Amino acid sequence: MQTIYDAKISDYKTISILGHCFDNKAMVHLAKHLPTAELVAIKKFNLDKIREDIELVESEIILTRQLSHPNIIPYITSFVAGPEVCVVSPLMAYGSCRDLLTRHFSEGLLEPAIILILKDVLSALIYIHKKGYIHRAIRASHILVSDTGQICLTGLRYACPIIKNGKWQRAIHSFPNSTEKNLNWLSPELLQQNLQGYSEKSDIYSIGMVICELANGSEPFAGMAKTLMLTEKVRGCTPQLLDRTTVPREETIECGGDTDISANVLDRRFGRDLHELVSLCFHWDVDMRPSASQLLSHSVFKAVKKAPPLPELLKPALPLSDRVGYDTEEMENFDALAKMSQLEIFSCEWDF
Amino acid sequence: MSRDMCNTSKSLDSESADISDQEREVTNVIFNSKDEVNSIEDEENLFINDPNNADFDDDLENLNIANFFHKVDSDQIIYQKKKRRLKLIGKYVMGDLLGEGAYGKVKDMLDSETLCRRAVKILKQRKLRRIPNGELNVQREIKLLKKLKHKNLINLVDLLYNHEKEKMYLIMEYCVGSLQGMLDASPDKKFPQYQAHDYFLQLIDGLEYLHSMRVVHKDIKPGNLLLTLEGDLKITDLGVAETIDLFAKDDICYIGQGSPAFQPPEIANGLDCFSGFKVDIWSSGVTLYNITTGLYPFEGGTIFRLFETIGKGDFDIPNDIAEPLRSLLVGMLRKDPEMRFSLRQIRQHAWFISRPPCSSPPVPIPPLRDDALHKMTVFPYLVEHYYHDPNENSSDVQYFTEHELNEMEKSRVDSEYSNGNANQSSSKHNRRRSKKPVSCISVKNFPGCNQS
C-alpha cells in the first residue's frame, strides 16, 4: 500500500454496512478513506460484545499483520475508536465466496471458478503452513474475492501455531475456541480430541469441504446435528461433489421426496480430476492425505490455465464497486438503499 | 431410572481383577434363580437393598448376618450387557468413567453444541453428607473455581444440578491424566529432569496465580496435578484450599488438611498458626523431590511416625541429583518457613531458569482401559443412538453369568502370563487406583506411608 492510512477514525467515512461476522459480534462497514477517496472495508469489533473472545481478535490482528502474501488479506491498519476495535483492509468487492453462493450460485459455482479460487487458497495455505500455523477455519465465508478476481484468505483468528517452545510439533491437541460455526469443515482427527492429535493436514480436509461447498452450494453436513456430523466423520463418511455421477437419478425420481436436488444438479458433471481431488483431501490416513503443495501440483490446475478470468465466471454477480460507483451522489443514494435493503445485506457474511 | 446394571463385557473384562470391582460383583448378588434379571442403577454400585436407602449402614446392625449372606454359585449370577444408551445432562453427552475419588466419579463428556470434550465431576449430596466437612468443602471449592481462571488451574466450565437425584455436575476442562498416574505407570516412578522441569514451571505459574488471588491450595501433590491433551498442567482439587481474608495483614492459616506426606514441619509439629503460602511451597518441594527422584523425602509407617520425621526436618537427597536441582530442593524444603524459598526465589533459581537437556524419552500418559489414545468414550453411545434401530433392542439383549466372566478373566490372565506380561497385570491394581484424579479426603490417600 503506497498511500498512508492513518489509524484514526476521522479519516474514514462510513458509507454502509456490508455485513456481520464473528457470530454477529462484529460488523463490517464499507467506508471511504477521506484523504485518498478510496473505498475500504472496516471491521468493527464491539468490545462489550466480544468479552472473552478479545484474545482471538488480538491474535488475529497480530498474526495477520505478520503475514504477507498476495492471497492473504492484509490489514492496512487497526486502532481503537470508542468501544470498538477497528480493522481496516482493502475492499474485496465481490465479498466472500459464501456471499456469492448465497446470492447467485445456490447450486454451486462453475468448475473453472472453483479451481481458480482453490488455486489461490492453496497458495495461501502453503504459505501459512510454511510459517508454522494451522488455519483451522478454511470455509467459503473466509475466502474473499476482489473486483479483479484476486482471492484472499481470511479468518486467521482461529489459527494456531505448530511451533511450541521453539520446536515444530508433530501433533497439535488444542481445540479451537468459539469454533461452533466452523465445526462442519473441521477434520475428524481434530474433532476427536484424543492423544493422536492433528496436524496441518487438518486444513487439507477443510479444503475438501470447501470444494464441496463451492460446488454444491452448501457445505456437507449443513443443518445436521453436530453430534451426528461428528459420528459420520469419525465413521469415515466422506462427502462428495453432487453431480450425475454421484447422485443416482432413478432413486430421486422414484422417491420423489428428494426435491432438494434439482434437475440442474442431476445433469451437470464435474471433471474426474476434481472428484479425485476431493477424495484425496478426505483421505482418512493423515499421512496419505496430500500436503497443500502436493495438491497444487494436481493435474486439475493445469487444465484451468486457459480458463477465462474469474470475474467472467462469476457473472451475473457484480463487484460492489461497480454497483456503487465512485461519485458521491450515488454513494449517498447507496446509503439510503442500504438501509432499505438491510435484510438482504444482513444475510451475508463478510468475514474479513 | 432403574436400568440395566452391568458394565459392558469389555470394561468388566479389563477391570474384574480389581478389588473394588469384585466387591461390586459380590454385592450385586440377589437372585436365587436364573430367571431373574437384576436391575440396579448403573451408576450406583450399591447393595442389595434399595439404593435410595441412605441409612443402610444403620440397618445392618439390626440384621442377622447369617440370614443375610447366601451362598450363590457363580453361574447363578447373571449380568445383562449394558445397552449403550445416550445420556444427556443439559447439553452434554455423558461418556464413561475417567476416575473416581472420595467425593464422586469423574466421567468423560462431550458438549453437543461446541463438540468440545469435557470432564464432569459428579457429586452426590447423599454421599457428601457422610464425609466430614464434605458439603462445606465442595461449596467452597465451587465458589473458588468460579472466580479463578488461569491456564494452569482447572477451569470450571459449567455447573448443573439435578435436585431430584441430589446430584451436582461440575463440568470442567478435559484432562487425560494426573502426574501421579503417569509416575505409577513408569518403571522408575519418576520423570526425566526436562519433563519434570516443564511441569514444575507450570506448577509455579499456577501457584503464583493462586497466591496472587490470596488462595492457599494446601494440597499440592502429583495426584492433584492434571494434564490436558496439549500437555498443559492444571492444578486441581481446591477442596481444602483457604482464601486469605482481603484485610488480613499476613497469610496466617490455622488449619492444615492436606495429604500427610506433603505437609510441612510446622503442621507436622502441630503449630497453632503458620504461613499459608509457605505450606504450598513446601508441598511443591516435596512434589518436585518426588517427581525427580521417585522417592519421598520423608517417610514413616504411620502418620505419627511420618510427622515425627517431617517435624525434625532432616532428609536426604539421592546422590544422582546434582546441582542446581539439589539446592532448589534444599531451599524449598527448609524447615523454617521464614528461611524457605519464596516463589520469587524459586523463579530466580538456576534450575528453574535453564531447561535440562532432553536425556531420555518422556514418560507417557498411561492408557485408559487399554486405550493408549484416550479416545472419546462418548462416541460408541452416539453410534448406538444414531445408527441402532430401536425396534431391535428387545431381541438382542445379552446375558452372561459371573462364572463365564471368571473363566474369561482366567484365560486372559493365563495368556498374559504366558506372554511374559506378568508384571503388567500385577501392577494393574496400583494403576487403577492412581487414575483417581479426585481425592478430597486426603488422609485416605497416603502414599508416603505405604512404603516403609
UniProtKB/TrEMBL annotation, chain A:
Example of a GO MF term: protein kinase activity
Domain Protein kinase: 26-301
GO cellular component, one term: serine/threonine protein kinase complex
One Pfam family in the UniProt entry: Pkinase
GO biological process terms held by the UniProt record: protein export from nucleus
Similarity comment: family membership: Belongs to the protein kinase superfamily. STE Ser/Thr protein kinase family. STE20 subfamily.
The protein, known as: Protein kinase domain-containing protein
Source species: Phyllotreta striolata (Striped flea beetle)
Organism lineage string: Eukaryota, Metazoa, Ecdysozoa, Arthropoda, Hexapoda
UniProtKB/TrEMBL annotation, chain B:
Recorded superkingdom: Eukaryota
Enzyme Commission number(s) of this protein: 2.7.11.1
Segments forming domain Protein kinase: 92-352
GO-annotated molecular function: ATP binding; metal ion binding; protein kinase activator activity; protein serine/threonine kinase activity
One of the record's GO cellular component terms: cytoplasm
Transmembrane segments: none
Polar residues bias: start-end ranges: 1-11
Name the UniProt record assigns to this protein: non-specific serine/threonine protein kinase
